[in-house]
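tool_call predict_complex ligand=zinc ion
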Amino acid sequence: MKVCIHRGTKEIGGTCVEIEAQGKSLVLDVGLPLDASNPDEIPLHPVKGFAAPDESLLGVVISHPHQDHYGLAHRLPEETPFLIGKAAEAILDAAALFSPSGLKLKNVKHLTDRTPIVLGPFTITPFLVDHSAYDSYAVLVEADGKRLFYTGDFRAHGRKASLTDRLIENPPKKVDILLMEGTCVGREDKTYTTEDELVPQFADIFRATPGMPLVWCSGQNIDRIVTIFKACLASKRQFIVDMYTAEILRATDNPRLPQAEWSGVRVFLPDTQRWRIKREKAFDISDSYKPHRIHWNQLAGAATKSVMLFRPSMVRDLDGAECLQNASVVCSVWDGYLEGEKNQWFVKWMAERGLSVRPCHTSGHASVPDLRRMRDAFPDAVAVPVHLQDRQRFSALFRNVRLRDDGEWWEA
Ligand SMILES: [Zn+2]
Ligand SMILES: [Zn+2]
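tool_result ok
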């Protein structure tokens, strides 16, 4: 078994790993680098089967539906065999109507927790893990008598923490290589606030806001949406989600997650999304939400009794609805977004309207203590870091670490 990390040994995101055995290859993730301005300008990795179809490429695993793991997938040949979770595929498919970052795949095998898939010399066993993306997997890859375990992105303080704990308590044995993410390496050596601990924090902010709390959060961060909904129940406010988010929730096909038809949930259609629906003539989708809609001219009246899921793309809708009196913005994304140059117009927009900004967030990635638990679960393995910035710190924190460079091939 030979391994090459095409990208990801020195950066968070853009991950792509190729594994070769008996002249065949398997790819783990084909991500878009986080700093890429145009996904179509990034050169494709030199993998046979990426630029043109090639029989040696047996599969491309998409560990989870985050763009830094699937963002180049649309550029691979149509017939490329993909392996992805069923709900993850449905989420990306539903997103495609509303966002250029959505994805429709043609040739798919579904990853199912702990169900091995055999592809030529490779046996791939997925393990469902806790992460801020829904339906995220770590994978064990076996070939030529060697075993490689790729953690993908994971954490152990979200709503599915028990999945990660279960993996750590009962990991695959005799693993030779542990490819472990290290996003939070270099940060403080302490555990993080759990999703459940965020519920009262959100509820306190909602109670302290006389007008509409606008929660800036990704429509695909399902764990967080559940957290916000629980805080809405606790503070006796209805939860207004945009139609894109309602579609993502529907795509999970999970009846335990908040859905448009639940009492206490209303669906708003921002102009940018209305325009997409018109252009694609997807009226069956907008019609299906008719009984659950809240219209722009109802927002001001509902402000004191509601919480709205929000993204900066919705500012014109909110200005038009005149619903911002005594409102607040709850920042439930990575706080670096507000510091970025390209979001300064939004900082100005908030300031001009006198909106206070309240952070309420926890990381989508494992804390250093949880990374340590994961590393120690694979005592026989050499640990190779991916998806990180501080590789020197990774070497100092964990035992038996081997740093590899982008594009370097090595024998397992
Ligand atoms: Zn990632
Ligand atoms: Zn991720």
